[in-house]
Amino acid sequence: KFDIQAAKRELDAKLHKLHEPEAPKRLKESKAKSGVQSAKFMYQDRLLALGLTYPELRDTLIKLEPSGLEGALRQRLLEFIRWLGARHLTDDILEKLQSDELRVKIRELQFLSEQQYADYDDSLYYEASKLSKQVIIETKTKQKDELARAMSDQIDPQKRQATNEQYKQLIHEIQELKR
């Protein structure tokens, strides 16, 4: 049996819904990483931007281990900057890169460099050295923490002593760098 009252209520509800502003639909979650992690390592991006833009600052990158930089992309960028040697980065070199991800990151670093380091002067060498030192200290601190964990797991007294010596050496190196 057809219920006219129920059909009328259903029709009224649909018409009413047509004239109500819809709540904004949620967008899909962004695939981009949160800027929080990125901001934490911004100093590494500034160092890479300086090295990318000014070949005369690249010797500040010599003592860096790629593993000291956060993420595979920054590590690849360090290797790319070292590959450049004394050459300036040109659009031709950039276009020959096969990795879009690397090309985009390089453009991002070029923009950063234009905004913060537009004109070369001697203070930029000091800035690059300071940033490089920060990366080295952070790398050695991570190594020290890993050794501390390894020592706590070590059962053999001789191996524990050797690990302890390495640990003390890293503490000494970190203190020297902080001076």
Can you put this structure into words, describing what you see?
It is a single chain. With 179 residues, the protein is mostly helical. Helix content is 69%, strand content 0%. The protein has eight helices and no strands. It has helices at 4-19, 35-40, 42-53, 72-84, 91-96, 100-116, 122-153, 157-178. The chain starts with a helix and ends with a helix.
The fraction of residues in strands falls at under 5%
- Count of distinct strands: 0
Percentage of residues assigned to helices: 55-70%
- Poorly predicted tracts of residues: none
Question: What is the compact description of this entry?
Answer:
Helices cover 69% and strands 0% of the residues. The protein has 179 residues and is an all-alpha fold.
